[in-house]
Recover the amino acids of this structure.
């Protein structure tokens, strides 16, 4: 957190003035950061800490909160509905992250380059990523309309498939959600991969070609290692995004039908805002936060070790 | 170099001053809260309902000099209240539907009411007072409006197909099927459905909506003993019959609007308004809404059908006004509620201004007659349904919780056409009993 001030020290400064000057030097970055920090403090850090604090209480709305120690956390680990939701979330993350990274990589191969039409294509393709999740959800609800005249049903009808229920069918709703998620996040991954590809040394391809490597070999031995940092970013961001997926689910199925799309965040939301059990919801959120933080740190550490 | 350095130092200082000023203005506005200001009232109503409340407030202010500030919302109303409660920033008065009574009492945000202290309280229907009373007899609200569900049918569709107004479940199913299969809007496309069903578990809609049908089958969610204790009643044949009827509509006839199993009431309203489906059992507050679209000449308001053994019943409920525990303006809050239940306030509530919706559906005041208050014969039908066949939701300490349990169960059974209704209800009834036990009213 502490800003790096070393480069501000100027060797030709008069030592006599150094004391006063360095006070200003030390202060000015903090002054610049102050507006942002104050806003973060008020709207992010304090609410987050308050959330952690809340997870040790039975939050009461009319009277003082009641201290319950680790009770809420104990419930987090025995709540069967939460465990089911966690399982579903894990599956959701695995499928969507892998699938969007894979498709993103393929698209990046096709869309790399600096030609003008490529830039237009890339911009057009990026649109889903900048559309808000609520709007995407509304669009896909229309696309997935469970009627024979629904858009997706019409398309699959061309190959002779019967109309499907999608969000209305408990056996398909989660998969349908994953499809929507992948559609929204592939462009994001693609852009990161395109940037990653631009950084791969062209000479390596030439050298590989001279050594007789075919396209597949070049991809495996040159492109992939060169893309390692990009892959790390895509997977890390994808996992974080996946574990806290909420809007996409809440705005389409609300966790239904028959609870088939209940993920961790919708479950926590319902505990907090439908059952009005704020303390428990805060505890579950704290656990989810710690899990995400630890998983991310572990993954990055593993990546770093791999690099050595 | 020195100048640039100084300049950056200075602009940094300016930036942090701006931030300080921002924070100051936040605290300044918090300090202003010490001035009592207007009476703060939250209502769960749409913007059109809000217009009517505004008219009531204007009359109240003219009479008493007490200013009123509303906040209205239809979605996430209870959630917003919970957030306000945690932020220790509750309003003075809350007006919400009767199902929230136990929830608010449980949250500890509302204060008890002494009926004798409410001026004009003796003029209210006893039936209405009962919706504000907990099983143990404590009163926590004042009823401001009553209602019973009625059936809205696309009259133009029905007459085009030459079918009668449904009197029974079978009639209803037949009409729904005809609306689905026989192109009632005559546009040559198979794009209509019969029956509107808000099947989402949000706010317990699934159970709330099905309640009328459960009552028509002669069933109930719980059976109550004379001592106020209850046990789950979802293993009774009536419950099995009810869910089987819904499964018939959803799975066999496929005569329910698309995506019904995830539909909230707002989405259900849209399905009816947009001409996607033509039969909707709903609250009378929709009369004026559906008059705008699909249009008064296209929609008819009829009684809910009779169940398989001829039982006529429909969900009856109402609106309640609560005074919060934290208010420092109890006297003003009470005066507002007294005005709202007075003949004047009730009349204003039934006769919305231009573009408004009635916030008093059936007057709770005995001195007013529903049909004449609304000047609309359809409201006479609503009043008749309420008095003859209206059945309220069960009186348990926290109905909202129980309704959520029932809704989750009903939704799961109806989501899968392969489900076993009897077995599912058996399992659901155990959960209902467990919730009753949690609320300490389970019968031994």
């Amino acid at each position: 957190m502490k800003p790096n001030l070393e480069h501000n020290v100027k060797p030709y400064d008069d030592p006599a003035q150094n004391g006063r000057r360095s006070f200003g030097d030390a202060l000015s970055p903090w002054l610049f950061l102050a507006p942002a920090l104050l806003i973060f403090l008020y709207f992010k850090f304090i609410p987050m800490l308050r959330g952690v604090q809340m997870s040790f209480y039975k939050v009461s709305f009319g009277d003082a909160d009641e201290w319950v120690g680790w009770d809420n956390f104990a419930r987090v680990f025995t709540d069967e509905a939460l465990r089911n939701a966690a399982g579903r979330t894990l599956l959701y993350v695995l499928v969507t992250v892998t699938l969007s990274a894979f498709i993103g990589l393929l698209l990046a191969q096709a869309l790399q380059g600096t030609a003008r039409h490529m830039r237009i294509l890339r911009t057009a393709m990026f649109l889903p990523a900048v559309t808000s999740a609520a709007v995407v959800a509304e669009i896909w609800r229309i696309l997935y309309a469970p009627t024979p005249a629904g858009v997706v049903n019409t398309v699959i009808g061309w190959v002779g498939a019967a109309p499907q229920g999608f969000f209305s069918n408990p056996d398909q709703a989660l998969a349908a959600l994953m499809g929507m998620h992948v559609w929204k996040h592939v462009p994001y991954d693609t852009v990161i991969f395109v940037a990653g590809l631009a950084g791969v040394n062209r000479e390596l391809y030439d050298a590989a070609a001279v050594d007789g490597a075919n396209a597949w070999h070049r991809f495996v031995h040159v492109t992939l290692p060169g893309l390692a940092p990009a892959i790390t970013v895509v997977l890390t961001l994808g996992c974080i995004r996946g574990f806290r997926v909420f809007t996409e689910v809440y705005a389409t199925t609300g966790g239904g039908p028959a609870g088939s799309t209940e993920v961790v965040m919708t479950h926590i939301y319902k505990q907090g805002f439908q059952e009005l059990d704020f303390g428990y919801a805060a505890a579950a959120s704290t656990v989810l936060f710690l899990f995400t933080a630890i998983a991310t740190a572990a993954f990055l550490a593993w990546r770093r070790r791999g690099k050595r | 170099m020195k100048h640039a350095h100084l300049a950056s130092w200075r602009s940094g200082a300016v930036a942090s001053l701006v931030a300080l000023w921002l924070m100051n203005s936040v605290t300044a506005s918090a300090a202003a809260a010490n001035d009592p200001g207007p009476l703060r009232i939250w209502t769960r109503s749409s913007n059109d309902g809000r217009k009517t409340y505004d008219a009531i407030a204007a009359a109240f202010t003219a009479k008493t000099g007490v200013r009123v500030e509303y906040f209205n919302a239809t979605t996430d109303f209870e959630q917003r209240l919970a957030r306000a409660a945690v932020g220790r920033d509750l309003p003075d008065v809350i007006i919400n539907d009767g199902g929230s009574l136990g929830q608010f009492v449980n949250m500890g945000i509302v204060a008890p009411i002494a009926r004798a202290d409410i001026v004009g309280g003796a003029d209210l229907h006893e039936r209405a007072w009962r919706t504000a009373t907990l099983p143990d007899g404590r009163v926590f609200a004042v009823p401001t409006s009553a209602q019973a569900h009625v059936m809205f049918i696309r009259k133009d569709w029905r007459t085009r197909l030459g079918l009668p107004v449904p009197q029974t479940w079978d009639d209803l199913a037949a009409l729904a099927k005809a609306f689905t299969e026989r192109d009632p809007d005559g546009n040559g496309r198979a794009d209509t459905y019969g029956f509107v069903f808000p099947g989402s578990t949000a706010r317990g809609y699934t159970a709330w909506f099905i309640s009328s049908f459960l009552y028509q089958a002669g069933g109930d969610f719980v059976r109550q003993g004379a001592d106020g204790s209850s046990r789950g009643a979802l293993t009774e044949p009536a419950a099995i019959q009810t869910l089987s009827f819904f499964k018939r509509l959803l799975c066999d006839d496929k005569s329910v609007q698309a995506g019904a199993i995830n539909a909230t009431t707002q989405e259900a309203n849209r399905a009816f308004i947009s001409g996607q489906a033509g039969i909707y059992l709903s609250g009378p507050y929709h009369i004026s809404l559906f008059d705008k679209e699909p249009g008064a000449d296209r929609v008819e308001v009829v009684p809910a059908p009779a169940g398989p053994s001829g039982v006529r019943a429909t969900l009856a409920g109402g609106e309640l006004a609560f005074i919060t525990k934290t208010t420092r303006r109890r006297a003003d809050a009470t005066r507002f509620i007294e005005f709202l239940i007075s003949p004047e306030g009730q009349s204003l509530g039934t006769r919305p201004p231009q573009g408004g919706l009635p916030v008093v559906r059936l007057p709770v005041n005995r001195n007013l007659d529903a049909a004449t208050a609304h000047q609309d014969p359809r409201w006479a039908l609503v009043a008749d349904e309420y008095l003859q066949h209206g059945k309220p939701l069960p009186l348990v300490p926290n109905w909202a919780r129980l309704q959520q349990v029932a809704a989750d169960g009903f939704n799961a059974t109806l989501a899968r056409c392969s489900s076993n209704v009897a077995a599912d209800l058996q399992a659901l009834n155990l959960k209902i009993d467990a919730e009753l036990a949690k609320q300490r009213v389970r019968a031994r």
About this structure: Chain A touches chain B at residues 24, 27-32, 34-35, 38-39, 42, 59-63, 141, 145-150, 167-170, 252-260, 273-276, 278 (CB under 8 Å). The longest helix of chain A spans residues 15-54. The radius of gyration of chain A is 25 Å. The mean pLDDT of chain A is 88.
